[in-house]
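Progress narrative, Year 2. Work on Glycoside hydrolase family 1 protein from Companilactobacillus pabuli advanced from sequence curation to structure prediction during this period.
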Amino acid sequence: MTNFPKNFLWGGATAANQLEGGYKEDGRGLSIADALPGGKDRFSIVQSPDFDWTIDETKYTYPNHLGIDYYHHFKEDIKLFSEMGFKCYRFSIAWSRIFPNGDELEPNEAGLKFYDQVIDECLKYNIEPVITISHYELPLNLAKNYGGWKNKKLITFFERFARVVLTRYYKKVKYWMTFNEINSAAHFPVMGQGLVPSNGGNEKKNVFQAWHNQFVSSSKAVQIGHELDKNLQIGCMILYATTYSYDANPANQLATVQQNQDFNFFCADVQVRGQYPSYTKRLLAEYGLTVDDLDRTDEELALIKKYPVDYIGFSYYMSSAVEVTKEDNDTVSGNLLGGVKNPFLKASDWGWQIDPTGLRIALNQLYDRYQKPLFIVENGLGAHDDPDKDHYVEDDYRIDYLKEHIKAMAGAIDDGVDLMGYTPWGCIDLVSASTGEMSKRYGFIYVDLDDNGEGTLKRYPKKSFYWYKDVISNNGLK
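Result:
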């Protein structure tokens, strides 16, 4: 088995909105995640024309309010991460904990002090913090009263937020990412852009404008970070789904090339290469748009050019197949996107097709295209766990999934890919982003909490906890 680099960053990943809880504590404001109801229908509910970011606690439950109460358990949880041997821990800062409404001039000191403690707790165990500045948790006020990221005023608000957290923590935190899965808005702009049908989410012009505003904001964060310390590593973060043509039909081959451009590469092309790609005109034309329909200034484009990101963080859960020549294809679900069923792959409990080889392909495609360091910051298996009477989970299915993906990583390193690290998603059980469930579990640590919010919140290591500990201690598979 390939030797991983000596300084390889093994760890795990979470997001504030899915685990912190404490949604009203110490001055925190509401975020868009707080307005997402629980259950498998949460996305269909928010896509209704009537949904306007109003929280109705008489009608829906809101599991993101509670998360797994990490706000009061973070020391216990980080200690468990240290017992696994984590070299790094990827987490996000809740924007509404720092600027409760998003548009204030001064930050909430109590929120900053919370992350002081989280960062210091990581460093106590020699765990490198890897911070996502914005991870699906836009302050609710900015979605309701400003219309989300299509409003250019959010550039100023984000710059203020990024400047506060970067200035506060840059001496302790080397690794940063700007926007989580920024390209997911191609299919579902609710999470990343705060756009729903009632505030323009169905209009592609708004999605592209929101992206532009985020590209500018990302470059501002890179500028701020590099002015503080030129050695800070500030990356973008995309959702990557390796894409195959269903067959050798040239129509499907062309559609595959274009889907790769439109989904896997577009946002990275701008943030990594520092300019809009050559196919932008074709992509916009598919929606009846031109670049003149977007509010972009020469100064903004120059900023994007001057301050590209330092590395590429990405999530990888599944691959996608493209078939445009037939209308009756079998389909599968996936990470904010679906697709044609690939007959060569098995699927998870939630219908996400499992494809470790696709990860090796993804790593090669990304590194060949950009020649920038790569960081797998999400990967994992959402599954039903069945604990015994002592709350121990024999999750060999999760171990098998991760083992095969680590083998694919090793293969990509052999191929010459510069891979920085690996942080499996939901290293501790947390609220699912796609369904609001606890029963869709990813973690190495079982949390005693069910979909109705009932449970002791006690933490219990799973079998995969000890397996992953061995992986880290051996710097890879034995």
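The CA atoms of residues 347 and 353 lie 4 Å apart. The longest strand covers residues 128-134.
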